[in-house]
Amino acid sequence: SKTSDKLSAFLKSGIYRFENSNVVFIDPVRMLNRSYTRFRFSPSAYYSRFFDSKETIETSNSKKRKRMDKKVPHELNEREQAATLRHQQVRPMLLKAHELLMEATDLLAIMKGLRGDSNICSSTESSEHHSFIELGKVWQAPLYEIILKAAWKGLERVVPVFNNLVVNEASDDMEAEFLNKKYIMPRESCFYMSDLGQIHNLIHECNAGFNLIVIDPPWENGSARQKLRYPTLPNWYFLSLPIKQLAHPDGALVALWMTNREKLHNFVQKELFPSWGVSHEATYYWLKVKADGSLISDLDLFHHRPYECLLLGYFHGQGTNSKQPPRLRPIKHDQIIISIPGEYSRKPPIGELLLEHVTHFKPARCIELFAREMTAGWTSWGNEPLHFQESTYFARD
Ligand code: SAM
Fold first, then answer.
1. How far is the CA of 149 from the centre of ligand 1 (A)?
2. ipTM
């Protein structure tokens, strides 16, 4: 039947499209696994949260927060009013999307099993990871090397791990070793691990010309109570991101992850996109659900929305005016991507969904900025792009 066809397609691709709608449900594990030939991403390592029905969102003192949220309607300042208005505008669409999910009983049944039955979690939380952020700052950083192990035994290459373009040109996964830990690099992928201060070196080393640029900046969060697992930067730092130099001269699709702070929306629309030469074209919403399909928090909770925005824009290429570049397909507005979140602040892999809009560049050249992982065919830049590549996140086939 039609539904079972769709489900088997989902089990292969990790993408479930709801018919006649702008809504997709994705399984990040299945999508990530398309990057690998010999290795498999472990579902229990990815889905470290939201599978226990008792689980609630991480709030430091949620009782107090709830009380504060109740008070909000009485004392909204101008910015909060704008934020509320923005929320009210997308609310019906998000509710509709969530209804679609709750009606798809066959899909819901599969969702519960996405983590697999292994409660023997590979304990990635408890095992010690290397802190690339810290290692990159020490004076020995330029001396740190990574050992790349080609599929043929004995063939090893030793290259600097920081401030260096590290490439796996092979059409197969590559294992690498760094300070006694193993990392997996997907086929035809590369990373450049550096601080933002050195990002300009990347442009020369990878001969730029990217058609798709995905950016997930370490935005400041405002609430000091929220413990972040990485350093953040003030907004003005991102004005200096060399988007123009990284983008293909004929144009590029730029996708920017946002937080729900109203101040940030203003900054991006009025300052950041204009300074990059990017025009805002559409907004995607990532709706976060638990394994049972319920939203991870109340839709109307002011400080803990169960969704995040991804702003899509065009870099129009050099010397063109405001006309839409001929080689980029127009983006359908307001897509909604539903998934069960992985680790704290980890974003779902949306690259493949975005590539539908860059069909005229073949193969499209893609880069992720502030990445914590690698993707086959992509360049990853950030101060810890190897983070989720550690072998403890993988299970061998
Ligand atoms: N998209 C990632 C994911 O799904 O896992 C999360 C990215 S997180 C929002 C931002 C990243 O920027 C973190 O890995 C953080 O360490 C990195 N970062 C913070 N300050 C940086 C700097 N000065 N230079 C380079 N990267 C930085």
1. 27
2. 0.99
Q: Which atom of ligand 1 is nearest the CA belonging to 194?
A: 25
Closest-CA residue, ligand 1 atom 3, reads 346
Mutation pick for ligand 1 pocket among 372, 380, 389 (CB with most ligand atoms within 8 Å) = 372
Question: Does residue 386 come out as left (phi exceeding 0), alpha (psi in the -120 to 50 range) or beta?
Answer: alpha
Q: Which atom of ligand 1 is nearest to the CA of 133?
A: 16
Alpha-helical runs (H) found in the chain:
2-13, 28-33, 43-46, 62-71, 78-103, 105-111, 132-135, 199-205, 243-246, 262-267, 273-276, 351-355
Question: With a 6 A CB cut-off, is 262 part of the ligand 1 pocket?
Answer: no
- For β-strands 212-215 and 366-369, DSSP reports them as parallel
pTM of this structure: 0.92
**Minimum mean pLDDT range among 181-185, 354-358, 364-368:** 354-358
Nearest atom within ligand 1 for CA of residue 347: 4
Q: Is 145 exposed, middle or buried (0-12, 13-18, 19+ CB in 10 A)?
A: middle
